[in-house]
Design goal:
By secondary structure, the chain is mainly alpha-helical. It is built from 37 helices and 8 strands.
């Protein structure tokens, strides 16, 4: 440490202890019998040689522990020993302000602009052609945040020491906040993150890793990185296949950026490690119930362990949520409530919410009621013997209405990150009105959080308590799980058929209880439902697999396939199909296994993991052959045709498309014949047999029209446009491509609309109409840019080439 560093250390340490004690400089001066100016000079490191007597007076006034007292005295001695002796007449050297104080720095907006300018090229654009996205993912700070001033000061001082707020050489800071469940790790991390966010002008990333979720799997490293890549404007279709490649892309995108990353609820060091950036300009905040010793040893993380709130902080938290007159009139009762909560922030917030909900009950009577109920349950062990979380939960639970209490117990069955009112209604097997009333009661007591309209989330500890209560009190958990799974299975199936009416309908089991009313009415509603329930459905599939409910696993996985494919969530598609394959094998259901293998092969094709795709699709062909299911075989051969098309092997692709057509003919399956004929025509056109391709595609178009399959008509018109274009029949090609564009646009299929527009522009260009080509290509580029699809670069290249030629 430099000479200046020793002077700074004493001043920073003095101010830290004063802030932690809640004293102003004037109050500390009065207690220590020193002047305000003397204390101010010491804190700003302007007093180079603090007298030992003064230091001891300060330690007494601050009521420091022996350890803290020794550190303060040692820091003062170090400052004195390092101060150089001045010659007569030499001016006094003033030390620079310490890191925890004010800094001479560029204002945040100017600093951000300077960094952005440094990244721009001469045209004002970044190397990627646009300003990088600035994600703002921090959740809202916890209201009524109380205490933790010493911890906040420690974290800020840590950031300052590493060059986090001035112009010194930066180093990546990893701050790991640990502590028992319910201690307020997330609240502290988010509060501090909001306070320092301006220092990180390139944005903030946040993920709840759910490392200790009692009823659901932790968020995987790959899933978390894919979420961050999405926040950084990487579309799902561009995410690499392996975790290593995803991590490399993530770190490349963060290089040169000054970003704040919050990794909440990590299970252990390995859970968080792949999410660490590789650059020195970032700050990572990690919370975990684990000590994360591996990150401390290997990555130089700084560990801050949280303890329980002090009695004063606990009282302040309660008082902040209750009316001042009520608090002032019953100070003893407030002390008793704080004591009963054992300084645990989660317990304090629940008790405060319940007391606020009963304004006519005196705090004294309320405290007596809670004290009596403590004996009802043993303590929910959180690793600290003084924290009785389970008892605190029981206090709130005992005062719920029967409907709300039953809803709470049943919510422990639901494995997803949140639940909709509709799903909760089916879970409880009650009317929508009663379900809404129960959910509202739970939300009003801070047991549930309504984070968006009609969607509710349950804290991990409360979920664990709900599970335990359901088991102890013998609620109908099995029947509730069956109703819940039936709801998701039938609704997902309805949504799948709205997205793709040509899919074969599965034979679903009848729902338990009353028949399910249709919730969705068109493809737009179906797509929106899948978007909202995406994470929930993944959790439902995993939970059903663990419970051995293999029928639900396979059917829900099947229903998600088109949505996951259309949105480019191919990693999730592959994961759900793996669950489906395993479920089918456990159940000995070869038909379901064949269907899942075909789905897994298609997902691998989109991920460009071709060897795995071929293996799964070959297995599906064999299984369908054993079952003598010619339609299944035909669909799998179409999937194999696409696999070879992606590898520019159109001869092999044509062979599989022809096999599919023969199989569909034998089965008398018109929809399959239409798909296969279009595929045969498409591959023949790529092999140069354009006239023959047109005949195939026209037959497919007639079939699709008779089936009222608009999507098939759109795809076939695109194939016809390609064949006519390469025959030189430009007018015909334009008509076919325009028909495809119109149909895809009406369907809301933006990617295929843009693909047809791009090829329509090619026709205009070859027909000697560059102005029309430019206009169409610009339309295609606008759509692809909005989707952030990699094909946008191909259209940009067409525009550049056309500009040079013309």
């Amino acid at each position: 440490m430099s000479d200046v560093g020793h002077g700074r250390r004493f001043g920073a340490l003095l101010r830290l202890h004063r802030s932690a004690s809640g004293l102003t400089q004037e109050e500390l001066a009065e207690l220590s019998q020193l002047s305000v100016r003397a204390i101010s000079d010491m804190e700003r490191s302007r007093t180079a040689r603090p007298r030992r007597r003064s230091v001891l007076r300060l330690a007494d006034a601050l009521q420091l522990s022996e350890s803290d007292r020794g550190q303060l005295v040692s820091a003062s001695r170090a400052a004195e020993a390092r101060e150089p002796r001045r010659e007569a007449g030499q001016p006094e050297t003033r030390l620079s302000p310490d890191p925890a104080g004010a800094h001479t720095r560029v204002p945040p907006r100017q600093a951000a602009a300077a960094r952005a300018g440094a990244r721009r090229g001469p045209d004002g654009m970044t190397g990627r052609g646009a300003m990088p996205p600035v994600p703002r993912q921090l959740p809202p700070a916890v209201p009524h945040f109380t205490g933790r001033q010493a911890e906040l000061a420690t974290l800020t001082a840590l950031l300052d020491r590493t060059g986090g707020s001035n112009g010194s050489q930066p180093t990546m800071v990893i701050s790991a906040i640990g502590g028992t469940a319910g201690i307020g790790k997330t609240a502290l991390a988010v509060r501090w993150a909001h306070g320092i966010a301006e220092r990180f002008p390139d944005g903030q990333l946040y993920v709840n890793l759910r490392g200790y979720h009692p009823a659901a799997r932790p968020v995987g490293q790959a899933a978390a990185i894919r979420g961050f890549l999405g926040a950084l404007n990487v579309p799902p279709a561009r995410v690499p296949a392996s975790l290593e490649e995803q991590t490399a892309l993530y770190r490349s995108l963060l290089a040169g950026r000054r970003m704040l990353i919050v990794l909440d609820n990590a299970r252990d060091a390995q859970h968080a490690r792949p999410l660490l950036p590789g650059c020195a300009d970032c700050l990572v905040i990690i919370t975990s119930r684990s000590q994360l010793a591996g990150l401390v040893a290997a990555e130089g993380a700084h560990l801050l362990s949280l303890g329980l709130l002090s009695d004063e902080e606990a009282r302040e938290l309660l008082a902040a949520r209750l009316k001042p007159a009520r608090v002032a009139g019953e100070p003893a009762a407030l002390h008793e409530l704080a004591r009963l909560c054992a300084g645990l922030p989660l317990a304090l917030n629940i008790v405060a919410a319940r007391a606020a909900a009963r304004p006519r009950l005196s705090l004294t009577a309320f405290a007596a009621e809670l004290r009596d109920n403590r004996a009802l349950l043993d303590a929910l062990d959180t690793g600290d013997p003084v924290a009785s979380v389970r008892a605190v939960f029981s206090w709130s639970f005992q005062n719920l209405t029967d409907q709300a209490a039953r809803m709470f117990r049943l919510l422990g069955v639901h494995p997803g990150p949140d639940i909709s009112t509709a799903a909760a209604t089916r879970l409880a097997g009650t009317s929508p009105q009663l379900a809404r009333r129960a959910l509202a009661e739970l939300a009003s007591m801070n047991i549930l959080a309504e984070h968006s309209a009609a969607r509710f989330a349950l804290h991990d500890l409360l979920r664990a308590y709900a599970i335990e209560e359901g088991r102890v009190r013998g609620c109908d958990r099995h029947a509730a799980r069956s109703r819940m799974l039936d709801y998701y299975m039938h609704t997902a199936h309805d949504a799948a058929l709205l997205l793709n009416p040509s899919r074969d309908v599965l034979a679903l089991t009848q729902p338990r209880g009353e028949a399910l009313a249709p919730e969705l009415h068109d493809s737009a509603e179906a797509l929106a439902w899948f978007e909202t329930e995406h994470a929930v459905l993944l959790a439902i599939i995993a939970d059903a697999a663990t419970a051995g409910l293999d029928h639900h696993v396979g059917q829900i996985s099947w229903s998600m396939a088109d949505y996951l494919d259309r949105r480019g969530h191919w990693h999730d598609w592959a994961a759900t199909q793996r669950f489906a394959v395993a479920a089918a094998q456990r159940a000995g259901d070869r038909e379901a296994e064949a269907r899942a293998c075909r789905g897994l092969g298609r997902a691998h094709t989109e991920l460009r993991t071709y060897q795995a795709a071929q293996g799964q699709l070959s297995l599906a062909v064999d299984l369908y052959g054993q079952l003598r299911d010619t339609v299944g075989q035909g669909r799998t051969h179409l999937a194999l045709a696409r696999l070879w098309e992606y590898q520019d092997q159109h001869a092999l692709a044509l062979r599989h498309a022809q096999q599919a057509l023969d199989l569909f003919r034998a089965a008398g399956h018109p929809s399959g014949q239409a798909s296969a004929r279009n595929a045969v025509g498409w591959h023949r056109a790529h092999l140069g047999s354009h006239a023959q391709a047109i005949g195939d595609c026209q037959q497919a178009l007639v079939l699709y029209h008779s089936l009222a399959d608009t999507r098939g008509e759109a795809a076939t018109n695109d194939s016809l446009g390609y064949a006519y274009h390469h025959l030189g029949s430009y007018a015909q090609a334009r008509r076919c491509y325009q028909a495809a564009v119109d149909l895809f646009r009406n369907l809301g299929d933006k990617y295929n609309e843009a693909s047809s527009l791009s090829r329509l522009g090619d026709v205009h260009q070859d027909a000697g109409n560059p102005g029309a080509a430019f206009a169409v290509w610009k339309d295609a580029l606008a759509v692809l840019s909005d989707l952030d699809h990699p094909d946008a670069e191909q259209v940009r290249a067409k525009l550049r080439r056309g500009h040079l030629v013309n």
